[in-house]
Amino acid sequence: NPAPCTCQNTKPANLYVSKDELDDLQRRRAEEFRQYQIRSGKENDVLILAPANTPLQYPMRGFRVTPMNKTLIP
Fold first, then answer.
1. This prediction's pTM
2. I need a labelling partner for 61 at 20 to 30 A (CA). Which of 2, 18, 31, 74 fits?
């Protein structure tokens, strides 16, 4: 097993980036993280079935298919 990663030799970003740029960077990262949470949140875990004209219904989202493997449709 590889050893855990440590960042002992790194220096904080505020040594290299101006205060205005650092504030802007933190704001952008916070917004990106919020968008990520929306995309991968609990509302995406809900299985939504598409109404079908045949007896077969299929999930509209939340269904993953792995290449070269059989996948059962819930």
1. 0.42
2. 31
